[in-house]
Amino acid sequence: MIPRRTENGLKTTEISLQLIELLVEQNGATLGDVVDETGLARSTVHNHLQTLSQYGYVVRENNSYRVGLKLHHLGDFARKQNEVYDIAKRIVTDLADETELEVDFTVEENGRTVSLYDVTNYTDTPSFLVDGRLFHMHSTASGKSILAEYPTARVEEILDQWGLPAETSKTITTRAELFDDLDRTRERGYAINDEEAIEGLWAVSKVVKDQLGRVCGSLNVCGPTYLRTDERERAVVDQLEQQVTRFEQEITNSG
């Protein structure tokens, strides 16, 4: 990982944040591993890790560093600040029970989607989602369902910022294809992901709005492709639409 620079970014802050991301990606690493991966001077890496350790964002165990639980505390605090979090938690849990698949509620943040709350109700396959994980919007059902509600100028702005990177061989990688897909999403009322973000994953997603018609996020059902049949997908879409209706009614009642 070569440390990247953002426009007008503060270099020292960027390095610290990217070291945290690296420790997550590597599931922990030694000082030497971090130096080799980043190409930074050993003293620079050591100083950053020491500072992060002092503030609880990184923990040193023996000769290895890992992210600290303080990040869990901050992430949990952040998601609970979302106005519909409590409603989302109930709806996601109930829909996961109904479908016996993986269900999450996703929001858009800075042009990408992040899972706010996730429940998995099958045990023979690892969960595809992790609360807090960021995804590009063009490659997920959740992202496409939200993009379909945005004005073209906002969609273009997001694409200018993040591009259309190919996550799998099925990922949409041109703007023309994406806008065609968003048209189909609006026509059918929900978005579909057919192994576009993760190989072996299919998903359907429907946007959730508040009483003023503003997008709150998207409710999503996903699972491994071997569990998908046309009949099951139709049933899942029906269950998804019913729970979105309930979700929006609860938002109205809470206001």
From TrEMBL:
Domain IclR-ED: 70-255
MF (Gene Ontology): DNA binding; DNA-binding transcription factor activity
Source superkingdom: Archaea
HTH iclR-type domain ranges (all copies): 10-69
Pfam families: HTH_IclR (PF09339), IclR_C (PF01614)
GO terms under biological process: negative regulation of DNA-templated transcription
UniProtKB keywords: DNA-binding, Transcription, Transcription regulation
SUPFAM superfamilies attached to this UniProt entry: GAF domain-like, Winged helix' DNA-binding domain
PANTHER family xref list: HELIX-TURN-HELIX TRANSCRIPTIONAL REGULATOR, ICLR FAMILY (PTHR30136), HTH-TYPE TRANSCRIPTIONAL REGULATOR RV1719 (PTHR30136:SF35)
Name of the featured protein: ArcR family transcription regulator
